[in-house]
Batch of 3 targets.
Target 1
Amino acid sequence: MKAVSLQRMGDLENDLVEAFPNVKFIFTQGVSDINDHDKKDLDILFGYDGKLDEDFLKSCSNLKWLAWYATGVNKLPLNYIDSNNILLTNGRGVHAKQMSEFIMAFILDDYKKMKTSFINQTNKKYDSKLTGKRVSGQTLLFLGTGSIAQKTATIANAMDMIVQGVNTTGHDVEGVSKTYTIDNLFQALEEADIVVNTLPETKETIHLLQREHFEKMKSAALFINVGRGTIVDENVIANVMKENIIRQSYLDVFENEPLTPDNQLYNINNITITAHITGNGTENKQEVTQIFKRNLSYFLNNNTLIENEVDPDTGY
């Protein structure tokens, strides 16, 4: 059994070699660092490299399992993976920990007017009458009720927020007081003070949010996107914010990444931008490797996986 990494793993390399003496590990710096011999007879690819594409996978004719260290798989050649019966796992759950902290940081940054305080500091202005707003009692709506929403809900509930969610079927979710089906999205948006998109990119979610959805939100609403930028067309969100249809947006993901310096979003005052960093964490690699190790133990004995398996057909 040969397992080839898509990134260097530091001290984790020795941990893997010692834990699985019957597996031949090859540690590389990505797809361009993997030689033809290893491509032909590798059984497992693990790690992350944004350059991985269908042509590369076609050269890995023996590949049985791709253990993707990111949560999002929308950039992978899912049709090829599906048609060739390649098992696929991701890092779901690990990234939710820091993403939940970012979501709450965005909310508090906005509600406590921290941006205004920083501007005042820059201008050497001392305004002791600046007054923020409490988050308790505010309705926080998640588009998508997966691990990110559930982790954030535990924090939001502790702060006495009202947590609601939208998912495909309207099924109950722990920590979420009320759920809506996607068919009732308009109703859900009308009730929310804060709307957070955590949905993955699928055929159904691309441009799911149209101008009319923002028009259904409260004019004082806060919109946060940490899911995928393709949830809303860039021109739609730009015009919505320019026209103050809602009050404020925090955007971490974008339809076209990376943003170029001349991108219109940089110049809209009620948009706060972070550069797709909410999933970044120094602990990620170690924690995703623990998932990989648990799956590998099971895979070696049963040729199947026990957690974080992704259906290439649906993308989650």
Note: The chain is about 35% helix and 15% strand.
Target 2
Amino acid sequence: MVLGRTLNGQPLLEFPMSSGEPALEPLRIKRATLWTRVEFRQAHHYQHHRQGQSNQRNITLWVFRVRCGNTTHLRGKELGEHLEMVTFLGVNVGQLGWQKFDVTKVVSNWYTANTNSPRDKLTLLVDCTGCGTHVHVSTFGGHSPHVIESSLNPKGAQDPDRPFLVVRTDPAAVKRVRRRAIECSGAIKGQCCKQRFYVSFSQLGWDDWIIAPQGYYANYCRGDCAAGHRTPDTFLNYYTHVIEEYRKMDRLAGMQPCCAPLKFSPMSLIYYGPDSNIIKRDLPKMVVDECGCP
């Protein structure tokens, strides 16, 4: 990704297609939200505008989709031909901070057009009318923007002010190929398997502080490990094999092998932290990917 690319001196936000493991069928995009931070450049300006007539002053934030290739300068009619207005938002100067834009339609169109050949980045421009020189729209901050996909495993940087795109997809549409991951839907009755299980943050009452995702497939393991014959290659290690042989000879009273998680994957969470800061954190071992009999 090219860092710091500009058009007429204004930084552009470039979002690439996810480089993760592809789904077996196209994702259905339910909602896409662009988050960007808008602040006064200096503290004394902030204090000044918080007093007196501040509540009567508004600014307008615009989001455009840019199609100009590697061009860095455009004027007049040419500029209009390469910019597509996506959305706009009126903001009172007394309510600056993180702002969000609904960009579902443009993201959905971009994704659909690039599903088979994910080469084109989604390029957006955030512009501000009425901002003057005192208001700053955070863009790169020396880093590239990133995409948070609610049904995928996002990866991002640590800059707390960088803009980001939250893409919420239909979880039921995400199917991945997992070797040796026996799903309960296709398992023999009673066999140890992975049961798909969706955790909703709104049902937990956590949606007032978690921005994304709305929920995720945590999954769990169920089934029986004691029944049937196991060949040596099905054990994780020699120790487990030896212990199982003793168990079958009734030398370990009360001991039963358990169907348990063998493989986990992380999940990224975006949430409000102290002082209304937005924090992105990668949480390890949040998703059960594979179950078995240790």
Note: The longest helix spans residues 104-114.
Target 3
Amino acid sequence: MATAAHWIEGARLRTLPNAIAPVLAGTGAAASLDAAAWWKAVLALVVSLALIIGVNYANDYSDGVRGTDDERVGPLRLVGSGLASPTAVRGAAIASLTVGAVFGLVLALTTARWLLLIGAACLAGAWFYTGGRKPYGYSGFGEIAVFVFFGLVAVLGTEFVQAERIEWAGAVLAVGVGAFSSAVLVANNLRDIPTDTESGKTTLAVKLGDPRTRTLHLVLLVVPFLATLLLVVRTPWALAGLLAVPLAVRANNPVRSGGNGLELIPALRDSGLALLVWSAVSALALGFG
């Protein structure tokens, strides 16, 4: 039987920077327009956290019942390890996604009802990443989805529900956040190339192969700092985003040095930390610069 600690580990708390960062960035963009609404920022954070925990449980369930996690290299999976039943993990996924849907509904009804369509797309994206008959995560589209949902949609959505408009600085932040978030998934999928190939999970890393996937990780880590240079047009304080450079370098070290398997776990952690630091300081720079 899975303990509370197992369920917490199954929620994959290390991925939470991918949920927190876009809300920070979007709120910073709204603050730069003198339109920050803190209660909406809090609701957006709840939505983002609920969705990422929901998608983590959904992936655990879908990968587990497909047998993809039978030879697991990374962190614990509840279904694949046999600690929890598929039904229980699916229920946890649905419960988390429902929480996100409810708070998202509040944001939509208090801002613009067409946001309900965006919310529905987010829920579908969360479930069908590894769920359904033809999961898009098994066809190499995972990184694109992460860039869109945890970058563009999450950042610009957070900005819009507060400011009721979006502008170029928010879009630049969204690209940076999306690139960092995709880098986290690239490191994860690089680690899993051998087991994913064996199980028939054709991720982008499997399609690109090991060397090109390592190059992609580096490129994605560079993009946010190019975004920083663009944000200097708004405020010179945006250069504070360069404080995340050491974390990005540390994140790429295991990838650049040819690490495999568990050796790549620090790349996931540090890519997420770089994302969080870059988003936080960039948001502060825009909001108060």
Note: Residues 17-288 form one domain.
